[in-house]
Amino acid sequence: MKRLVLFKSSKRLRVSIIFICLVLVQQVSAGQKFRVPAEPPKAHYKIEARIDISNHMVEGQEKILFINSSSRPISLLAFDWAIKDSRSIEIDINGNPLALAVPEKKPTISSPLLYMLPEPINPGSTVELNVKFKAVDLIGHNDKEIKLIRWYPRLWWEGLPTHDTYEVKLDIPPGYALAASGRLNKKTGYYENKGVRTFGIYLGKDLKTEKKDVEGILITALFTEKGWECANLCLETAADVVKFYKNWLDFYPFNFLYIIPGASRPMGGYPFASGIVVIHGQEQFKKKPLLHWKWITAHEIGHQYWGEYVLEDDVPGWLWIGMGIYADREYVMSRNLGLTKHTGLMNRYIKGVRKRFDTTVDIPEAQLKRLQYDHNNVVVHGKGYSIISALECVLGKETFERIYKKCLKDYGGKRLGYKTFWRVCEEESGQNLKWFFNQWVRSNKYLSYQVISQESIKKNKKYISRVKVECVGSLRMPIPVKAVFEDGSSQIKFTNRLFKVNHLEFESKARLKEVILDPDKKLAVLKTPLLLTVEELPDNISDLPWTDAGEDALKLFERAKDLKLEKTYPWFKLGLTLFDGGYYKESFYAFQKVSVLNPSKFYHFTALVWMGHLNDLLGTREEALKYYQEALTYDTGDTMRHDQYRLQINRKWVEERLKTPFKWGKK
């Protein structure tokens, strides 16, 4: 049987192709399921490809070798490719063509393509696939630069990223500079690597190149004549960055790095493919300060560790962003370049909080698609980095760096999601970090602390300084508080996350001069808390503890009055928490609101009883009796239990209160 080529446009040939397909295509039996291993097998791709820009064509052949490293046989294989007028593919094993495992009678089949194997690949067995392919829909009409990532048929594991090894020989037209996800082996003519996430190709017409070897890593910059000055700075910076990362982290993930031009405007960059980074706006070098170019170079190279070497396992992919930014922050700090860019990233998130965006990180993909704001900048970059920086603050730099390096060592070429990262953090630190990840990742809570008082008293020859710090946001964590004294000395202490108000005491030789929260600017802290909206208020009231809510209950009470809250249950809970805190007049107001908000008969009964209680406590017995008597007219025969006080309010209770006033004293 001849090998099948699906690439013609004439109607007669398309009909013939359909007929041949129907002969080859087999139905997938019930026992042949497409299974994706938890850790998909890594493959070795050996590709020879020709790029014909004038005809918008990419064609080639490849050998794909992989071992079934999973625990179950593999009967079906999927490829990230399509069959249509503009694309063709042939696949065989030892000269035997593979059959498409699709029941539909279609001349066009979109990715992924599913193929039946002649026999299952058992665990530990090896298979070699031979593939021929052609496409004329990958190259656009702009012949000045060609960007190719999904340019060859690749094994598809339901979108899960894998690290695969490549040998790629490219036939490209003259006059183009090349960047590829491999290093050229001059003896074989292949661009090689030992494992990358994506093999990208970039062709730039009439571009110049400069190279620099840094401890075995070949760095190449591609640039226009006008962009030379910027490219030269980026190349020099990249050499310094790679050397810094290699010394700090003990390795660099690839033995090659390309820096290519991007958009005309200097707005940042991105990792184009494994080992290839884009720096935008190189021809407008003077429009940005040197810090920008140095930072963005370090930033994009950091993502060669996180995103290209350690693979992301979450949607949205915030972890690799945050960990990559942490890398460039360490470089910037080591070179005394300041943290302007990093505080700017945090400010993106803070602005989002102030605009009341839902910044919960761990949300379903369907909900993510419905968000109506720049989620990538606000949450993925802004909050992603803020989470990592806050975690370092909690664990300490030494412990966090140990975790950082362990993740690079253990998850290179593998997927790392935040839940696995969470587990590693707990194992390495010996701490339960549920409180941290639940607040930062699984909620919309935000960080806001304020110094509410400070004093310094001389005692003998020393000064005792007392500082009161209050959590005025919704997220609680230990934050550093720096006390600076008049002799120039300073001390740092951390708040306790369990306390809303922390009382910190410092002993010094000189008087207290100032107090600084988060002195190293590593935390995304709102300077002033948000005022609750009427929509947010009920949930915040519901979150109040039944006892010892104190001033929190009073603040929510005042906000409820200001917003004219018209919901029964929040007012009922405010009534009880205000009573618990000794705010009897405010508690009476809350229960009075309950009684006029058309509550159920049972809640009306209970609210009136409490209004009687509060009048008894305020010394107005005649008023108390009126409320008790009115309460009986709403009696349903049910009992309201207040287990926190061991009280059971029902008709019998009210009849006793008609005889004996309500008395209260916490025991």
Walkthrough of the structure:
With 667 residues, this protein is an alpha+beta fold. Among the domains are: 317-333 and 340-440; 449-517, no CATH class; 537-659, Serine Threonine Protein Phosphatase 5, Tetratricopeptide repeat (Alpha Horseshoe). The strands form eight sheets. An eight-stranded mixed beta sheet has the order 5-4-8-2-1-11-14-13, with no helix packed on it. A five-stranded mixed beta sheet has the order 16-17-18-20-19, with helices on one face. The N and C termini lie far apart (92 Å).
Instruction: Tell the overall outline.
Output: elongated
Note the gap between the termini: 92 Å
- Overall average residue pLDDT: 92
Instruction: Give the count of helical stretches.
Output: 17
Beta strand count: 30
Strand order of the largest sheet: 5-4-8-2-1-11-14-13
Give the C-level CATH assignment of the domain at 537-659. Answer: Mainly Alpha
- Give the biggest sheet: 8 strands, mixed
Strand content: 25-35%
What is the H level of CATH, i.e. the homologous superfamily of the domain at 537-659? Answer: Tetratricopeptide repeat domain
The low-pLDDT segments are 1-31
So what's the oligomer here?
A: single chain
Provide the structure class.
alpha+beta
Give the radius of gyration: 33 Å
